[in-house]
Amino acid sequence: MSDGRAVVGGEQVLNTALLLGGIAPVLSGLAAMFLGDAYVHLIGPHVPELFSKEAYEMLLLWVNLQGGDALVAGLSRIVVAFLGTLVLKQLFAAIGIFHSVYELWLLPTRALPWCDATGACRNLAVVEIQLFVVLHVVLVLSFGYGLVRTYQPNFPAWKRSS
Asked: How far from 150 is each of 2, 94, 98, 155, CA to CA, in Å?
Protein backbone atom coordinates (compact mmCIF):
# COMPACT_ATOMS: atom_id res chain seq x y z
CA MET A 1 0.00 0.00 0.00
CA SER A 2 1.35 3.39 -0.95
CA ASP A 3 1.90 6.00 1.73
CA GLY A 4 1.69 8.88 -0.75
CA ARG A 5 5.43 9.51 -1.15
CA ALA A 6 6.71 9.86 -4.69
CA VAL A 7 9.35 7.28 -5.50
CA VAL A 8 12.10 8.25 -7.89
CA GLY A 9 13.89 5.32 -9.46
CA GLY A 10 17.63 4.95 -9.43
CA GLU A 11 17.90 5.24 -13.20
CA GLN A 12 16.00 8.55 -13.12
CA VAL A 13 18.42 9.88 -10.51
CA LEU A 14 21.39 8.76 -12.63
CA ASN A 15 19.89 10.40 -15.73
CA THR A 16 19.45 13.71 -13.90
CA ALA A 17 22.95 13.56 -12.40
CA LEU A 18 24.49 12.72 -15.78
CA LEU A 19 22.70 15.66 -17.41
CA LEU A 20 23.68 18.02 -14.60
CA GLY A 21 27.25 16.74 -14.72
CA GLY A 22 27.35 17.08 -18.50
CA ILE A 23 26.10 20.62 -19.01
CA ALA A 24 28.87 22.42 -17.08
CA PRO A 25 31.80 20.76 -18.92
CA VAL A 26 30.10 21.32 -22.29
CA LEU A 27 29.75 25.05 -21.61
CA SER A 28 33.19 25.57 -20.10
CA GLY A 29 34.73 23.27 -22.71
CA LEU A 30 33.33 25.35 -25.57
CA ALA A 31 34.59 28.54 -23.93
CA ALA A 32 38.06 27.10 -23.33
CA MET A 33 38.31 25.61 -26.83
CA PHE A 34 37.34 28.66 -28.81
CA LEU A 35 37.95 31.56 -26.42
CA GLY A 36 41.06 30.42 -24.53
CA ASP A 37 42.48 33.89 -24.02
CA ALA A 38 39.16 35.25 -22.75
CA TYR A 39 38.78 32.13 -20.59
CA VAL A 40 42.14 32.79 -18.92
CA HIS A 41 41.32 36.49 -18.51
CA LEU A 42 38.09 35.53 -16.72
CA ILE A 43 40.25 34.02 -14.00
CA GLY A 44 41.97 37.36 -13.58
CA PRO A 45 43.34 40.16 -15.73
CA HIS A 46 46.84 39.71 -14.30
CA VAL A 47 47.15 35.97 -15.02
CA PRO A 48 48.95 36.47 -18.36
CA GLU A 49 51.58 38.59 -16.60
CA LEU A 50 52.56 35.58 -14.50
CA PHE A 51 53.93 33.85 -17.61
CA SER A 52 56.53 34.61 -20.24
CA LYS A 53 55.16 35.11 -23.77
CA GLU A 54 56.14 31.56 -24.77
CA ALA A 55 54.78 30.03 -21.56
CA TYR A 56 51.49 31.91 -21.97
CA GLU A 57 51.14 30.61 -25.54
CA MET A 58 51.65 27.09 -24.18
CA LEU A 59 49.07 27.78 -21.45
CA LEU A 60 46.55 28.83 -24.11
CA LEU A 61 47.25 25.67 -26.11
CA TRP A 62 46.74 23.60 -22.96
CA VAL A 63 43.49 25.45 -22.17
CA ASN A 64 42.24 24.80 -25.73
CA LEU A 65 43.09 21.09 -25.47
CA GLN A 66 41.53 20.71 -22.04
CA GLY A 67 38.44 22.52 -23.32
CA GLY A 68 38.09 19.90 -26.03
CA ASP A 69 38.42 17.12 -23.46
CA ALA A 70 35.80 18.75 -21.23
CA LEU A 71 33.44 19.13 -24.19
CA VAL A 72 33.76 15.45 -25.10
CA ALA A 73 33.33 14.35 -21.46
CA GLY A 74 30.23 16.50 -21.02
CA LEU A 75 28.67 15.38 -24.29
CA SER A 76 29.38 11.76 -23.37
CA ARG A 77 27.49 12.13 -20.09
CA ILE A 78 24.55 13.72 -21.86
CA VAL A 79 24.42 11.03 -24.56
CA VAL A 80 24.64 8.26 -21.96
CA ALA A 81 21.81 9.88 -19.98
CA PHE A 82 19.54 9.77 -23.04
CA LEU A 83 20.70 6.64 -24.87
CA GLY A 84 22.78 4.55 -22.48
CA THR A 85 21.89 1.27 -20.87
CA LEU A 86 21.53 1.07 -17.11
CA VAL A 87 24.93 -0.63 -16.82
CA LEU A 88 26.60 2.15 -18.80
CA LYS A 89 24.89 4.77 -16.63
CA GLN A 90 26.11 2.96 -13.51
CA LEU A 91 29.66 2.90 -14.92
CA PHE A 92 29.55 6.61 -15.74
CA ALA A 93 28.19 7.31 -12.24
CA ALA A 94 31.03 5.38 -10.59
CA ILE A 95 33.59 7.22 -12.72
CA GLY A 96 31.76 10.48 -11.97
CA ILE A 97 32.07 9.89 -8.22
CA PHE A 98 35.81 9.32 -8.56
CA HIS A 99 36.20 12.44 -10.71
CA SER A 100 34.10 14.61 -8.39
CA VAL A 101 35.98 13.46 -5.28
CA TYR A 102 39.22 14.41 -7.05
CA GLU A 103 37.78 17.83 -7.90
CA LEU A 104 36.60 18.24 -4.31
CA TRP A 105 40.19 17.74 -3.20
CA LEU A 106 41.79 19.82 -5.96
CA LEU A 107 39.61 22.94 -5.99
CA PRO A 108 39.75 23.95 -2.31
CA THR A 109 43.29 22.72 -1.67
CA ARG A 110 45.03 23.94 -4.84
CA ALA A 111 42.91 26.41 -6.83
CA LEU A 112 41.70 28.64 -3.99
CA PRO A 113 45.14 28.81 -2.29
CA TRP A 114 46.70 29.70 -5.66
CA CYS A 115 44.21 32.55 -6.02
CA ASP A 116 45.07 33.77 -2.52
CA ALA A 117 48.83 33.43 -3.01
CA THR A 118 49.01 35.19 -6.38
CA GLY A 119 46.18 37.66 -5.99
CA ALA A 120 45.60 37.08 -9.70
CA CYS A 121 42.03 35.79 -9.46
CA ARG A 122 38.96 37.93 -9.82
CA ASN A 123 36.23 37.53 -7.23
CA LEU A 124 34.13 35.97 -9.98
CA ALA A 125 36.74 33.21 -10.42
CA VAL A 126 36.69 32.46 -6.69
CA VAL A 127 32.88 32.30 -6.74
CA GLU A 128 33.07 29.99 -9.78
CA ILE A 129 35.46 27.68 -7.91
CA GLN A 130 33.11 27.64 -4.91
CA LEU A 131 30.13 26.87 -7.16
CA PHE A 132 32.04 24.00 -8.75
CA VAL A 133 32.70 22.62 -5.27
CA VAL A 134 28.95 22.72 -4.60
CA LEU A 135 28.25 21.10 -7.98
CA HIS A 136 30.65 18.25 -7.25
CA VAL A 137 29.11 17.66 -3.81
CA VAL A 138 25.70 17.42 -5.48
CA LEU A 139 27.11 15.06 -8.13
CA VAL A 140 28.74 12.74 -5.58
CA LEU A 141 25.51 12.55 -3.59
CA SER A 142 23.34 12.12 -6.70
CA PHE A 143 25.55 9.51 -8.35
CA GLY A 144 25.89 7.63 -5.07
CA TYR A 145 22.16 7.71 -4.35
CA GLY A 146 21.34 6.72 -7.93
CA LEU A 147 23.74 3.77 -7.77
CA VAL A 148 22.32 2.57 -4.47
CA ARG A 149 18.76 2.92 -5.79
CA THR A 150 19.57 0.90 -8.92
CA TYR A 151 20.91 -1.95 -6.82
CA GLN A 152 18.40 -1.60 -3.96
CA PRO A 153 15.17 -0.20 -5.42
CA ASN A 154 13.52 -0.01 -1.98
CA PHE A 155 16.31 2.12 -0.45
CA PRO A 156 15.68 3.77 1.94
CA ALA A 157 13.50 1.03 3.33
CA TRP A 158 11.16 2.77 5.74
CA LYS A 159 8.57 0.49 7.14
CA ARG A 160 5.29 1.68 8.41
CA SER A 161 4.38 0.39 11.81
CA SER A 162 1.09 -1.45 12.03
From this structure: 20, 12, 18, 9
